[in-house]
Design brief:
This protein has 13 helices and 21 strands. 37% of the residues are buried. The model has no long low-confidence stretch (mean pLDDT 86). Bound molecules: FE2/S2 (inorganic) cluster (FES).
C-alpha cells in the first residue's frame, strides 16, 4: 500500500506554508486522499526539493517566529518521557516495516528464480516467464532511482513525528501541532484556535476535552478531579496534558459570549515608546490568571485610580503577556503612562469588552485597515488570521496620520513570512473621505472581502459607505472605532 502523509505535515516537509499547499491542492496539482498525500505524488510535484536538507523548513519556521516575536529558545524538544515514547513508537514502526521489506525481498527473489527456471525449461510458457522476469528486474531498478528521495521524505516525516504531534479537533475539523513542552491548550491557542478554557492551571475543569484517539501525557499537575466515568470516557484537561502521539480530540471553541468578565491584577513589564506620541504598555498577569480574550476586544486598565479603555494589541495566544498601545493625550491614564508609570507597578485589567472579533468565513479575502493607533486591534486580528494560516489572500493597509507609522518593520516581516499577505501604507492626506477612496482603490475587490477597519468614526463611516456602495454585504463589515482620548471607542 502506498505511504501517505497528512497534508498538514506536507507543508512543513516541503518548506511551504499551509496556504501554499492548499492552493496546489485546490488547483489539482497535488492530489489528496482523505486529507493525506501519497508520497509518490509528493516527490513528483516537488522534483527540485532537496528532501535531505531540513534547512528550508527551519528557515520558514524561523522567519515566522521572528515575525511573531516569539523567542526561539522556547522551541525546545518535548518532555523526555514523551520523546522516549515517540522514539520507541517510531522504532517499532520501522522494525515492522523492515520485517515486511525483508519478507517481500525474499518472495521477490524466489519469484525471480522460479521465472528464470521456467524460462530455461523452454516450452510454451518459457517466453512469457522470461518477459515477466525481465519486467520484474526492470521495475526493481526503476524503483531504486526514486528510492533515495522517498527515503529522505520518510526520514523527514519520521523526524517530525518525534518532535511534534498533530491534533485534529472535532467537530471543528481544524488541526494544529503540539511542539516542545506545550500543552494541548497552549498549542491550540498559539495556532489561533480559541479553545474553551478557564484558569489554565488545572483548577477549574473548563478545558476538559475528550480523547477520541491517540495518547496524551500529563505534564502539569492538576487539582481538578475528573470522575471515574469521565476518565473512562476519555476526558482529560488540555491545560495539563501534552500529546504523545497524533491525536483526535473533541473540544469546544470559545465565542465572545463564552468569555466571562475578568478582573486581573497585573504588573508593568515595560513601557516601550514606539514614537513621540504612542507607547506600548506591556503587562504581565499572575501565572494562574491569564486574560481570556479574542482579537479585536478591549480592556479597561486602572493604575492607582486613573483608568482608560484600550484595544488589546497582543495575541490571544498568550494571555499572560498583555499589550495595549497608548497615545499621548490629556486622558489621565495616558498622562500617567507618559509621565511616570514604571516597571513592576500595579495595573488592574477589567475585561474583555467588545464584540467585533475575527469571524471570517473560509475562502473570503481579508482586508485589514488601521488608521494610526488603530493598528493595536488590527495588529492583533492580523496575528490571529496569520496563526490560522487558512490560505485566503490578506491585505493590510495602514494610514499614518498623527502618531506616525510605528511597528512598520513588524508589518513588513509579516508580509515577508506569508506570501498570502500584502502590506500597503497610505497617506492620510485629504481626510476621511479621500482615504476611504484610496483604500477601496488599493483593495480592488473590496466587494468580495471581509473588512476589518479601526480608526476615527468619520473614516469608518466613509469606508463602510464606499465598500457597501461597491457591493460588499453588510455582514462583511467589522468596524472598530478609535476614541481620540482613550484609544477604544
Ligand atoms: S483551564 Fe482550568 S483546568 Fe484547564
Amino acid at each position: 500500500m502506498a505511504h501517505r502523509i497528512p497534508v498538514a505535515r506536507v507543508a512543513r516537509l516541503a518548506g511551504l506554508s499551509r496556504s501554499q499547499v492548499q492552493r496546489l491542492i485546490q488547483a489539482g496539482t497535488l492530489p489528496t486522499f482523505d486529507g493525506t498525500v501519497d508520497i509518490d505524488d509528493l516527490v513528483a510535484v516537488f522534483p527540485d526539493t532537496d528532501w535531505d536538507a531540513d534547512g528550508e523548513m527551519r528557515r520558514v519556521e524561523e522567519v515566522k517566529n521572528r515575525a511573531f516575536g516569539r523567542r526561539l529558545v522556547e522551541l525546545v524538544l518535548p518532555d523526555k518521557h514523551v520523546l522516549a515514547e515517540r522514539l520507541y513508537r517510531l522504532s517499532r514502526k520501522y522494525a515492522a516495516a523492515e520485517r515486511r521489506a525483508e519478507r517481500f525481498a525474499l518472495r521477490l527473489r524466489w519469484l525471480e528464480e522460479r521465472l528464470g527456471a521456467m524460462a530455461a525449461e523452454g516450452g510454451a510458457e518459457a517466453a512469457v516467464a522470461a518477459d515477466l522476469r525481465d519486467w520484474l528486474r526492470h521495475e526493481q531498478l526503476d524503483g531504486a532511482k526514486e528510492s533515495d528521495r522517498i527515503e529522505a521524505v520518510l526520514a523527514g516525516e519520521g523526524m517530525m513525528e518525534v518532535i511534534s504531534a498533530r491534533v485534529r479537533l472535532e467537530p471543528d475539523g481544524r488541526d494544529f501541532f503540539v511542539e516542545g513542552n506545550d500543552t494541548v491548550l497552549e498549542a491550540a491557542l498559539g495556532a489561533g484556535i480559541p479553545l474553551e478554557y478557564g484558569c489554565s492551571n488545572g483548577n477549574c475543569g473548563a478545558c476538559r476535552a475528550r480523547l477520541v484517539s491517540g495518547e496524551v501525557r500529563k505534564v502539569h499537575p492538576h487539582d481538578f478531579a475528573l470522575s471515574a466515568t469521565d476518565k473512562a470516557d476519555g476526558a482529560f484537561l488540555m491545560c495539563s496534558y501534552t500529546a504523545v502521539t497524533d491525536l483526535v480530540i473533541e473540544a469546544g471553541t470559545m465565542g465572545v459570549s463564552d468569555i466571562p468578565r475578568q478582573i486581573i491584577p497585573t504588573r508593568v513589564r515595560a513601557v516601550e515608546h514606539l514614537g513621540e506620541d504612542v507607547a506600548a504598555l506591556h503587562l504581565t498577569t499572575p501565572r494562574s490568571q491569564r486574560l481570556r480574550f479574542l482579537a479585536g476586544q478591549t480592556v479597561t486598565l486602572d493604575a492607582g485610580g486613573v483608568s482608560g479603555r484600550y484595544y488589546v494589541a497582543s495575541c490571544p495566544c498568550d494571555g499572560r503577556q498583555v499589550t495595549v498601545h497608548v497615545r499621548r493625550t490629556n486622558d489621565p491614564f495616558a498622562r500617567r503612562v507618559f509621565a511616570d508609570l514604571g516597571h513592576n507597578e500595579d495595573v488592574t485589567i477589567d475585561g474583555p469588552g467588545g464584540d467585533v472579533v475575527y469571524d471570517s468565513v473560509l475562502g473570503r479575502k481579508l482586508v485589514f485597515v488601521a488608521w494610526d493607533d488603530g493598528f493595536a486591534p488590527i495588529g492583533s486580528l492580523v496575528q490571529h488570521a496569520l496563526s490560522l494560516d487558512e490560505g485566503q489572500p490578506m491585505r493590510l493597509l495602514r494610514v499614518a496620520d498623527e502618531v506616525g507609522l510605528y511597528r512598520d518593520n513588524q508589518c513588513r516581516s509579516w508580509a515577508d513570512a506569508y506570501d498570502t499577505l500584502e502590506y500597503t501604507v497610505l497617506s492620510a492626506e485629504g481626510g476621511a473621505g479621500a482615504v476611504a477612496d484610496r483604500v477601496a482603490a488599493a483593495c480592488g475587490d473590496i466587494a468580495v472581502s471581509d473588512v476589518y477597519a479601526a480608526g476615527p468614526k468619520a473614516f469608518l463611516d466613509a469606508l463602510r459607505g464606499r465598500a457597501v456602495g461597491l457591493g460588499m454585504p453588510e455582514g462583511a463589515w467589522h468596524g472598530l472605532v478609535m476614541d481620540r482620548d482613550s484609544n477604544a471607542g
